[in-house]
Amino acid sequence: MKTAVIVFPGSNCDRDAADALARVTGARPHMVWHADTHLPDGVDLVVLPGGFSYGDYLRAGAMSARAPIMQAVRAHADRGGLVLGVCNGFQILTEAGLLPGALMRNAGMRFVCRPVRLAIANANTPFTRAYRDVRETTIPIAHADGRYYADDATLDQLEGDGQVVLRYLDNPNGSARDIAGIVNARGNVMGMMPHPERESDPTLGRLGGWPIFQSIAEAA
Fold first, then answer.
1. What 3-state DSSP class applies to 126?
2. Do residues 159 and 177 touch, judged by C-beta distance below 8 A?
3. Average pLDDT over residues 185-211
4. Average pLDDT for 11-24
């Protein structure tokens, strides 16, 4: 499986994501700079990592969504390639229009950094199928702008089409309908606010997010 991690100015989880991908695939991912215009040939998965790209100026993810590399990411998704956006990556995907809705300031107006319990709402996606026998997991969050918002019609469609894949069991940020992660209608683009790369190291016994990467490896 061939993977790539996009690196933006301000990314701080790109190496963590790369380590998790290397553990599950046995190969180091390509680290692609935001100003590049092409992805490596034959890439199966693109990861937009967490961090504070461009210092979260304007809105979180707004500037990164217009980075040169995003045209290639969009083309990759249009071809059916897998794209995973984590935290800031989720924000970028919504700002780029690759996922519906928006990530807004937390309801408590504070940065929240702690493990959270999650319900697996849909284990039938390329990103969650390894959770098929698990109803819930624990993965940490670290964000100030993680409150998922969409209008009621969009929320109804997401739920009706099975596009909500993760829900908070103790909503830490006020997200609409407890949404922590969604996929696009095609099922090949996923955004999630919790950080699976921080719960994916067997040597530390932290495996709550490991099935995300295991699922991706199985899907390739």
1. coil
2. yes
3. 94
4. 96
- pTM for this predicted structure: 0.96
Does the active-site annotation cover 87?
yes
Pairing relation of β-strands 82-86 and 45-48?
parallel
Check which CATH number belongs to the domain holding 189 and give it.
Answer: 3.40.50.880
Q: How far is CA 153 from CA 115, 160, 172, 190, 197, in A?
A: 30, 10, 23, 20, 32
Count of domains in the chain?
1
- Domain hosting 215: range is 3-219
Establish whether 195 is a catalytic residue: yes
Q: Where are the alpha helices (DSSP H) in the chain?
A: 14-25, 69-78, 88-95, 152-160, 210-219
- Over the Cα atoms of the chain, what is R_g? 15
The candidate with the shortest Cα–Cα distance to 93, out of 79, 107, 105, 76, is 76
Q: Virtual CA dihedral for 111, 117, 119, 124, nearest 10 degrees?
A: 80
Q: What is the pLDDT of residues 39-72, one digit of tens each?
A: 999 999 999 999 999 988 888 999 999 999 999 9
The Cα–Cα gap between 135 and 220 comes to: 24
Catalytic residue among 34, 76, 143, 195: 195
Query: Pick the catalytic residue: 13, 34, 76, 87?
Result: 87
What is the distance between the alpha carbons of residues 1 and 100, in angstroms, rounded to a whole number?
Answer: 28
